[in-house]
Input
Amino acid sequence: MKIWKITTIVLTIALISSNVWWLHSAIDVGVTNKYQEQMMFERSGILKQIISVTPELSSAISKNEIVTIVKKSTDLEPFEKEGVVWVGWTGLKFDDKNKLVKVIPSWGAFE
Output
């Protein structure tokens, strides 16, 4: 009879301990995901701001200079497709005077 009592106590403690551990893990994952979501939201806002002002900031620079500057951040070779010069994950749209008019991130290419 005593062995069953000890076994029950040990198993109860193990069950409670494992439940506490699972609860802690679930809370930790939730907090981590919330911080990651906030960081992605902030970086997305920063990226949108930079993309929106880039054409105006680069108005005095030629097409070749802009492509050369952007190419420094990637090992991929630039190519042109449907009027957009793609350098890595970034599309650069120029007007007929070779002035930058739009910066297109790769995920926004098909919008």
